[in-house]
Structures are given as C-alpha cells and as structure tokens.
Amino acid sequence: MSAIAETNQLFENPRLIPAAIVAVCVGALGSALASEYWGGLDPCVLCIYQRYAYVGAMTLGLIGLVLAPRGKALKAVILLAGLAFLTGAGIAMFHVGVEQHWWRGTEACHAPAIDFNAPIAEMREQLLAKQPATCDTIPWSFAGISIAGFNVIASLLFAGGCVWAARRVTES
C-alpha cells in the first residue's frame, strides 16, 4: 500500500485524528511523570506549565472524538489542539531561554529565600523542606538539548501536524 493511500485512509475515519492527539498527549504526559517519579527529575514551575498545554490538547482531542462525524466542528477542535501545542512550544521556548540564562524566569522559578533572621529551629525547617526545582538548571540533556528544548521541537511538530490534519478533514 502506498503512503498516499495510507494517508487517505487516515482521513476516512474521522476518529483517528483526535485519537492520535489524545495518544500523543498521554505519551508526553506519561513520559514527563515517569521521568519525575521513576527518573528522579523534579519539575520546575515552567515544566508544570508545559504539561498544561498537553492537558488542554488532550481535552480537545477527547472533545474531537465526540464531534468526529461533524467536519467543521472537528476541524475547529483540531486547530484548537494545534494552538494548545503552539502555546506549549512558546512556554518551552521561554523555559529554554531561562535555562540558557538569556532572560530571568518568573518569580515562581526561583527557590524561596531562607530567612536568616528567623530562630534556628525555623531556619532548620526551611533548609530541610523540599525545595522546588529552579527553572534555570538543566537536570538532563542529550546532545546539548534539554528536556524543554526537546519539548519545543515536539510541540511545534504536533502543532504543525494538527494544522496539516485539519486541512485534510472533509467538511460534512
């Protein structure tokens, strides 16, 4: 079977595109949670914000499964999922800039300061409390690309895929 025939077959079943969006999001969120809980990579606040984009796209994919037979509505949902991926790419690009020290992150990106005027017992509690990860440290990278950098690439590809798929959905 040729690649064109396989591509056309994809668009004959309108549920496949939103199902693919959901699958991509489940995979991305699953790998993020696996790296956190099994890999020991604590997420910073910008990492969490990037997950929200996937949750939004996944929600739209689920809505698309319900709207699958409706061409214009399905096309709109797919385009909105693409916009969610594009938003995630923007957050990830901002995160890469913070990691590279091109600009400062949000206030939530920095670990809370220790109050050195507090009593010793309170300072001890502050030091022993688990500190959130800071956004400007790179906990893992491959070939010089951080997790946020890979997310930029993936999110842009997913957004482009949504635009490509929406253009090919038949309006009925």
Task: Characterize the biggest β-sheet.
Answer: 2 strands, antiparallel
Shape field: elongated
Say what the CATH topology is.
Answer: Bromodomain-like
**Number of DSSP strands?**
2
Strand proportion, as a percent range, falls in under 5%
Low-confidence stretches: none
Which CATH class applies here? Mainly Alpha
- Cα-based radius of gyration, to the nearest Å: 20 Å
> What structural class do helix, strand and pairing data support?
mainly alpha
CATH architecture: Up-down Bundle
In the sheet with the most strands, the strands line up as 1-2
* First-residue to last-residue Cα separation: 27 Å
CATH superfamily: DsbB-like
Assembly type of the shown chains?
single chain
What is the succession of H and E elements?
Answer: HHHHHEEH
Number of domains: 1
Helix count equals: 6
Q: Give the overall average pLDDT.
A: 85
Percent of residues in helices: 55-70%
GO molecular function, one term: protein-disulfide reductase activity
Protein name: Disulfide bond formation protein B
Organism: Denitrobaculum tricleocarpae
Subcellular location: Cell membrane
